[in-house]
Specification:
Layout: H1 2-29, E1 33-38, E2 41-44, E3 47-51, E4 56-61, E5 75-80, H2 86-94, E6 101-106, H3 121-138, E7 141-142, E8 146-150, H4 153-167, E9 179-183, E10 195-203, E11 217-223, H5 241-257, E12 268-274, H6 282-289, H7 293-298, E13 299-306, E14 314-319, H8 326-342, E15 345-350, H9 364-369, E16 374-378, H10 402-421, H11 441-451, H12 466-478, E17 480-488, E18 493-495, E19 500-507, H13 510-517, H14 522-526
Parallel strand pairs: 3-7, 4-5, 5-6, 6-8, 11-12, 11-13, 13-16, 14-15
Antiparallel strand pairs: 1-8, 1-19, 2-3, 2-18, 4-9, 9-19, 10-12, 10-17, 14-16
Protein name: Nicalin
Subcellular location: Endoplasmic reticulum membrane
Family: Belongs to the nicastrin family.
Length: 527
């Protein structure tokens, strides 16, 4: 009987342990879950870049656990941007040191309209760090999962506990418990035949009686897609949301101006929203190739709008032809006159195209390659580096000053109208404030806000994406003969899916529980 009592006691203890473990499971399951955004994964000419893994299941560690000699191969580091040591990150990436995973915590203010301000010294340093970090991650081959998440109350509580444990020298392991970070997601797959979509609309001019000649054309163009470290966060409010919003407002203004037959100028206006901007303006190249020779020869010049939402007192006109060229000189003088009236300065800079090098820095260079006169209007004084300044994590709504966009619209619209109607000099204002042809700030702001909520990395936009439909509808409201051109991004780029996931944070003895859940080994069965 004594032996039987001991057996019952053992069974009772085992049952109690199981109940405790199930309680732990419930507690673990009741931990927090947050949205996370994966670092982009892509290949460039066959070379791998970005985060090459998506699945994550490791214990959480803080920056304090990254001491010299520490084995972090089974640790997922949680690091707020404000605590990030770029030297440490660069060392781990450059030397390919083992790391279980990396979760970078971004400040909530990045999501807000006030955001990170350039005029605040602390915010300026943070913006610079974020930009440098993004370039480091995007241009490296990283063999572990990297995710971005936004700080919130729950995740900050977890981080505080993780930091406290690391500070005492007791980081989370399979035996000590702690927090475990889990992202369960399928293995990333290649995106087959990534689409790029160009949208165009016309405002036809008015021919004179007996005029059999084809009317000349002015093209207004803006690239709408983005590229950034986290595709699901790449909204590109300034680059190039500001250019897109400006183009749509210019189309609206000239639609009203051309609505009266007597006011239709002897110029056709062609509005183009192009894709593939970060990828050497690949969509622009394919759009131009779709033009027949007659259309190309009819274009007097094209104005490309790029990053015009974050400037105060000067803009740049970038050209391929010398400023002394008659067409370029006319464009520059016309824009300079209007800019002077509006109280700011226009600079001009020539960058010759190298026919033997397919790399272009500005959208207008694709026009120049097919012998069409073109210029880019931008707040940037030099062309961005490849895959840079194309809608990164910093490029949010807070970066854009709507007043800068209003002034850019007024500059382009007024300069084009004076050219179309042959008005020279000062004292003529076609799009006057408080008139029926005045700029509509609400229209511009609504599009800036919409674009700032919409990630637009081209390979992740389908042909039927609601965003593409919204652009087409808006252009259809103001122009005629709207058409959409679908094409495939050139094969030098390969992109992978799985850009967004859920991070589950478990607490407690989940490793012990998983061990107990495993089927017994043959030896234990025999015993």
């Amino acid at each position: 009987m004594a032996g039987g009592g001991q057996g019952l006691d053992s069974i009772s203890s085992a049952v109690a342990l199981i109940l405790v473990l199930f309680a732990c499971v419930e507690l673990g399951d009741a931990a927090t879950a947050v949205d996370v955004y994966r670092l982009i994964q892509y290949d460039l000419a066959g070379s791998p870049f970005g985060s090459r893994l998506a699945d994550l299941s490791h214990h959480a560690g803080s920056a304090a656990s990254a001491v010299p000699g520490a084995d972090l191969s089974r640790t997922a580091l949680m690091v707020p941007l404000k605590d990030l040591d770029l030297g440490f990150l660069r060392e781990y990436i450059t030397n390919r040191k083992p790391l279980g995973g990396l979760v970078l915590l971004l400040p909530q203010k990045l999501r807000e309209k006030i955001g990170i301000a350039d005029d605040d010294q602390g915010d300026g340093l943070m913006r610079n760090m974020l930009s440098e970090m993004e370039q480091l991650l995007v241009h490296a081959n990283i063999p572990y999962p990297v995710y971005f998440a936004f700080e919130n109350e729950k995740i900050n509580e977890v981080l505080t506990e993780v930091q406290s444990n690391d500070a005492t020298g007791q980081p989370a392991t399979a035996t000590t418990g702690g927090y475990k970070l889990v992202v369960s997601t399928p293995e990333p797959k290649k995106i087959v035949s990534p689409a790029i979509t160009n949208i165009q609309g016309w405002l036809p001019g008015l021919k004179g009686e007996g005029d059999a000649n084809q009317l000349p054309t002015i093209a207004i163009v803006a690239s709408y897609d983005t590229f950034g470290a986290a595709p699901a966060l790449s909204v590109g409010s300034d680059s190039n949301g500001s250019g897109v919003a400006a183009l749509l407002e210019i189309a609206r203004l000239f639609s009203r101006l051309y609505s009266t037959p007597k006011m239709r100028g002897r110029y056709n206006l062609l509005f183009g929203l192009t894709s593939g901007g970060p990828y050497n303006y690949n969509g622009t190249l394919k759009w131009l190739r779709s033009f027949d020779q007659r259309l190309r020869e009819s274009i007097d010049y094209a104005i490309c709008l790029n990053s015009i939402g974050s400037w105060s007192d000067e803009l740049w006109i970038h050209v391929s032809k010398p400023p002394e060229n008659a067409y370029i000189k006319e464009i520059y003088e016309g824009f300079s006159t209007v800019a002077d009236e509006l109280g700011f300065k226009i600079n001009i800079k020539q960058k010759k195209i190298n026919i033997s090098n397919p790399r272009v820095g500005w959208e207008h260079e694709q026009f120049s390659r097919v012998r069409v006169t073109a210029a880019t209007l931008s707040e940037l004084s030099v062309a961005p580096d490849f895959l840079k300044s194309s809608g990164g994590l910093c490029d949010t709504r807070s970066l854009v000053d709507e007043t800068a966009v209003f002034k850019s619209v007024k500059l382009v619209a007024e300069s084009l109208a004076r050219h179309i109607y042959g008005h020279r000099g000062r004292g003529i204002e076609i799009f006057a404030d408080n008139s029926s042809l005045a700029i509509n700030p609400f229209h511009i702001n609504s599009w800036l806000d919409f674009l700032s909520r919409t990630p637009r990395v081209a390979p992740f936009l389908s042909k039927t994406d609601p965003f593409i439909s919204a652009l087409k509808k808006e252009l259809s409201d103001h122009t005629t003969d709207v058409s959409v051109q679908h094409d495939v991004l050139d094969g030098i780029f390969t992109f992978y899916d799985q850009t967004k996931a859920t991070l589950n944070i478990y607490q407690g003895l989940d490793d012990l529980i998983s061990i107990l859940r495993r089927p017994p080994s043959r030896k234990s069965k025999a015993a």
